[in-house]
Design a protein that fits this description.
mainly alpha, globular, Endonuclease Iii, domain 2, 2 domains
Length: 267
């Protein structure tokens, strides 16, 4: 009699529902006011400037760029060297300057010499993402940032912090890459919860669910984390430690995060 084949073990389901995780994290770090900061074209430029740099440096570069040229049309017509000089305070100017000019030029070509991208809000989400992704260097994360932060559309934007927290909660599998995570999480999160999911998870990843030595004893959703026992090893926090209350943001407006720390494969 042939030996029985062992069945493959199915991946464990997350122990906490996404909506519950969002609720608890929002209570811990929120509220998160949903207030668009920039129109889509300016948000796009800001997103490029924010790649692989701090929020402070990207904001300095953006202010310097707009102070130097005044508007995006002037930037599109400018020499790359002049753009590079204007954004040098933000880092990686030699890479970002030609990218900004190329993208703005391409938008003008595709959009009848207009940099007004407000029409994206009238398109189905999939079409709006596809339109942005035809631009050079714009992948799912950058498209999600622009559509979500600027136009309030339920587009997912996954950075390294959100990706890490989602994997530890087993909302996505261990072999899922960052690009695929956008589609999976966008389908799993209710449209009206996409923005709070983004801000809550990115804040939690920065403050508690860190890459190295996560503060599992301080984790408000640790009871529902399948990775908690593994994380709380001999080098981690004491397993008997109870969660500590963390300082809440209160009524202070939370800075919208722009942290493209997972480089998109299209860039």
């Amino acid at each position: 009699m042939p030996p029985k084949r062992s069945r493959k073990k199915r991946a464990a389901k997350p122990s906490i529902a996404i909506n519950e995780a969002i609720r608890l994290l929002t209570e811990q770090y929120g509220p998160f006011p949903e207030e668009p900061r920039l129109d889509p074209a300016h948000e796009l430029v800001f997103t490029i400037l924010s790649q692989h740099t701090s929020d402070t440096n990207s904001e300095r570069a953006f202010r310097s760029l707009m102070g130097r040229f005044g508007d995006l049309y002037s930037i599109a017509r400018a020499e790359v060297a002049d753009i590079e000089s204007a954004i040098s305070v933000g880092g990686l100017a030699k890479i970002k300057a030609p990218r900004i000019k190329t993208i703005l030029t391409r938008i003008l070509e595709l959009n009848q010499d207009s940099l007004d991208l407000s029409f994206l809000a009238e398109m189905p989400l999939a079409e709006a993402k596809a339109w942005l992704r035809q631009l050079p260097g714009i992948g799912p994360k950058s498209a999600g940032i622009i559509l979500n932060f600027s136009l309030g559309m339920p587009a997912m934007a996954i950075d390294t912090h959100i990706f890490r927290v989602a994997q530890r909660l087993e909302l996505i599998g261990p072999k899922v890459n960052a690009d695929k995570a956008h589609d999976l999480l966008e389908a799993a999160v209710e449209p009206h919860q996409v923005f709070p999911f983004h801000v809550a998870f990115i804040t939690h990843g920065r403050q508690v669910c860190k890459a190295q030595r996560p503060l599992c004893g301080d984790c408000i959703i640790g009871f529902g984390c399948p990775a908690r026992d593994r994380m709380m090893g001999s080098d981690g926090p004491d397993a008997s430690q109870t969660p500590k209350p963390r300082k809440r943001a209160g009524s202070k407006t939370t800075q919208l995060p722009h942290t493209p720390e997972i480089e998109e494969t299209t860039q």
